[in-house]
Amino acid sequence: MSYPARPEVGSVLHWRDGAVAHIRFNRPEALNALDVAMTAAFRRACDDVAADSSVRVLVISGAGRAFQAGGDVAAMAESPETVGRALIDHMHSAIQTLNALDCPIVALVQGAAAGAAIGILMACDLVLAAEDARFSLAFPALGASADSSSTWGLPRVMGLRAALRFALLGESMDAARALREGVVSDVVPAAQLDEAGQRWAQQIVRSAPLALAAVKRLLRSSLDHTLGEHLAAEADAFLDCARTADFAEGTAAFLAKRKPDFQGR
Question: What's the rounded Cα separation, in Å, for the pair 49 and 44?
Answer without folding.
Answer: 9
